[in-house]
């Protein structure tokens, strides 16, 4: 029901569903390029790809949040990759997928706690406290770390150790090697222990076309400060060789 409401180029499309009382089957768009998890851990990621992926996730998540939907299981395995043809040639497109744990935001009650995958799960969820859409911003910060570090967060800890350390000791990943300072600061702001101090996914303006013909998501120009947002800044933070 959540998926059926959604229609956005960076959100996996639902085609149909069958519910026969015993099983629920859903039919979705096929996104044949594997997941971001596969991409991070098997291939080098060049800066243009990182820009397209990060911008696509921002746009998809902005849309979901504008529809009152909290994903609650945002992680590289649930970000699917596709190449689409355009006049400028093939373009990498990321689609936010797997809403098995999502539900429409309901401000009147505390949502179910203890869900998701511990690495990407915000501390307030791990503590079964009331939470809001900022849990997805937390997950996005961890994903940015994984993209840059190219390894699993907390790879030396099991799920229980991660949950306890994150929820009770404010434990977070260390700075990735050679990580630009502004980029590291952005990750830290996304996984701030106080949800209200995390940035929000922005309302994203239409991406301009670069001189190379690839559609890049860029921060708005100075003439439109009202639409500027810190989550877009990371797009300019990656060194060219990343
Ligand atoms: N619509 C899709 N098109 C193409 N591949 C998909 C699609 N949905 C899922 N996959 C791929 O299928 C695999 C299984 O996905 P699934 O969501 O069932 O499990 P998961 O993401 O590994 O774990 P979790 O249940 O925690 O989300 C993943 O590798 C994912 O990339
Ligand atoms: Mg999944």
Written description of the protein model:
- With 242 residues, the chain is of the alpha+beta class.
- It has one domain (3-104, 111-206): Transferase(Phosphotransferase), domain 1 (Orthogonal Bundle).
- Helix content is 30%, strand content 11%.
- It has seven helices and six strands, in the order ββααββββααααα.
- A two-stranded antiparallel ribbon has the order 1-2. The chain has a two-stranded antiparallel ribbon with strand order 3-6. A two-stranded antiparallel sheet has the order 4-5.
- Strand 4 and strand 5 form a beta hairpin.
- The longest helix is centred in the first third of the chain and has 20 residues, at 47-66.
- The protein is globular.
- It binds adenosine-5'-triphosphate and magnesium ion.
- It holds the Pfam family PK_Tyr_Ser-Thr.
- This is Protein kinase domain-containing protein.
């Amino acid at each position: 029901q959540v998926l059926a409401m959604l229609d956005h180029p960076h959100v996996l499309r639902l085609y149909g569903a069958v519910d026969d009382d015993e099983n629920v089957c859903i039919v979705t768009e096929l996104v044949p390029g594997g997941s971001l998890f596969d991409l991070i851990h098997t291939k080098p990621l060049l800066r243009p790809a990182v820009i397209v992926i990060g911008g696509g996730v921002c746009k998809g998540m902005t849309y979901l949040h504008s529809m009152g939907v909290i994903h609650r299981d945002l992680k590289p395995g649930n970000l699917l990759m596709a190449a689409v043809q355009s006049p400028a040639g093939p373009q990498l497109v990321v689609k936010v997928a797997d809403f098995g744990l999502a539900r429409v935001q309901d401000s009147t009650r505390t949502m179910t706690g203890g869900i998701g995958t511990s690495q990407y799960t915000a501390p307030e969820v791990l503590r079964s406290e009331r939470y809001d859409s900022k849990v997805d911003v937390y997950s996005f910060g961890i994903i940015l770390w994984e993209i840059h570090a190219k390894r699993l967060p907390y790879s030396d800890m099991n799920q229980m150790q991660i949950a306890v350390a994150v929820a009770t000791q404010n434990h977070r990943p260390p700075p990735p090697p050679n990580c630009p300072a502004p980029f590291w600061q952005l990750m830290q702001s996304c996984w701030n222990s106080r949800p209200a101090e995390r940035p929000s996914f922005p309302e994203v303006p239409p991406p301009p076309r670069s001189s190379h013909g690839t559609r890049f998501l860029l921060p708005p120009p100075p003439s439109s400060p009202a639409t500027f947002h810190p989550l877009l800044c990371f797009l300019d933070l990656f060194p060219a060789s990343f």
